[in-house]
Amino acid sequence: MSRPYKKETICIQSGWQPKNGEPRVLPIYQSTTFKYESSEQMGRLFDLEENGYFYSRLQNPTNDYVAAKICELEGGVAAMLTSSGQAATHYAVLNICEAGDHIVLSSTVYGGTFNLITCTMKKMGIECTIVDPDAPAEEIAKAFRPDTKCVFAETIANPALVVLDIEKFALVAHEHQVPLIVDNTFATPINCNPFKWGADIVTHSTTKYMDGHAMALGGCIVDSGNFDWNAYPDKFPGLCTPDESYHGVIYTEKFGKAAYITKATTQLMRDLGSMQSPQNAFLLNVGLETLPLRMERHCFNAQKVAEYLEGHEKVAWVNYPGLKSSQYYETAMKYMPHGTCGVIAFGLKGGREAAADMMDYLELAAIVTHVADARTSVLHPASHTHRQMNEEQLKEAGVASDLIRLSIGIEHVDDIIADLEQALSKIQ
Question: Cα–chain-centroid distance for residue 73?
Fold first, then answer.
């Protein structure tokens, strides 16, 4: 190959590379286990002395080929699939944090992520400090402690649609000798590559745009390979000191830039088991093949719908990074000049009650928990995904009580707008 492939080509050609006489389409390795000719060879696998597959809870060929494709799209060095986006977030953080450690968390992350880190992981002894992603760097810096192990944020927040200043967060994280972990689900690697701006680890809920058809749960973790764990061995002993559960292996010494993902696979996946099924990985790969085409249509449609809503007399406000009126427009143009995502947040002049009524009148758009697939869907986060939060937490997360999350699909934009028009015409 004379030059690197474009993302559109990577989505089609990367990952599975069939040899002569092998299937052109990625096979589903629907097997829990794998056969070997000798006990000695199996032993070498368990000692991490040889690459190979022995049990699908840890690794599976179908999954690895798909992870390799996502890794290439993000520009990373290693990646792994998980059973869901939540599992990806959990593993990405737990891989470098343990009881007594601390996380700096952006306040506007997805409600499930917020709950995972502030509630469930708190029970594991991991504390966090919540920061406003729009705060100046010097204010964010005050949240760090000697036991801080990472910063976690989203490139485009779900559902607040806050666009992260990745460089600002990366700089403050690195000044405090910790990695920046970024959830890139909404932007996808088609529209944003956080590693280019200093992020160290990227997570995805592949359930969303990557799958694209609301068929297969999944998650992914990608490591840039850029963070120097060995520079801070006392801060990251899990990577830099012997792992007695694997014969004293030191991941950074044995696996170099692949240390982080190798540890997550051999240790966390071994013990916690949130592996993506090969069937789901196969479906994810099919979705990835059309990801660039779909993201282009999602963003085109969302821009048109956002402009329509902004001009509607019954709409109180619209938040979409592609609108010049958005406070995140300039940040979006810096990090995502070719488009952001297909999700719009808006509120009605009639408030929360009008929002519920309007959603019930929709015919084409469906009320579902899911977001970011081919079909237009709608949700009221304060009543649904974020209902576990009180008013103060909703405000901190950037989720207004009247916020409607509208996920624009790839239908014809005229039909989407017509559906919104008939629904809005029926509310007071």
Answer: 14
As a whole number of angstroms, the distance between CA 340 and CA 375 comes to 18
Where is pLDDT greater, at 393 or 96? 96
> pTM of the prediction?
0.95
Which residue in the block uniquely carries the two structure tokens 């520079």? 231
- Mean residue pLDDT of the chain comes to 94
Token representation of residue 423:
């629904």
**Which residues partner with 318 through β-bridges?**
346
Minimum mean pLDDT range among 13-22, 288-297, 378-387: 378-387
In whole angstroms, how far apart are CA 372 and each of 133, 182, 342? 23, 18, 7
When pLDDT is cut at 50, 70 and 90, the band that residue 321 belongs to is very high
Question: Among positive and negative, which fits the CA dihedral 227, 229, 234, 238?
Answer: positive
What is the maximal distance between C-alpha atoms in the chain? 75
Q: What is the pLDDT of residues 354-403, one digit of tens each?
A: 998 999 999 999 999 899 999 999 998 777 666 677 777 777 766 788 88
Give how far the C-alpha of residue 390 lies from the chain's centroid of Cα atoms, to the nearest Å.
25
* DSSP one-letter code for 275: P
Residue 200's SS3 state is coil
- Tell the burial category of 270 from Cβ atoms under 10 Å away from its Cβ (0-12, 13-18, 19+): middle
Task: Return the residue matching tokens 């594991």.
Answer: 124
Q: What percent of the residues of the chain are helix, what percent strand, and what percent coil, each to the nearest 5?
A: 40, 15, 45
Structure-block tokens of residue 308: 């329509």
How far, in Å, CA of 258 to CA of 241, rounded?
16
The β-bridge relationship of strands 201-205 and 219-223 is antiparallel
Own/partner pairs, 276-279, CB within 8 angstroms, 24+ separation: 276/63, 276/81, 276/82, 276/83, 276/206, 276/217, 276/218, 276/219, 277/83, 278/28, 278/29, 278/30, 278/56, 278/60, 278/62, 278/63, 279/28, 279/30, 279/216
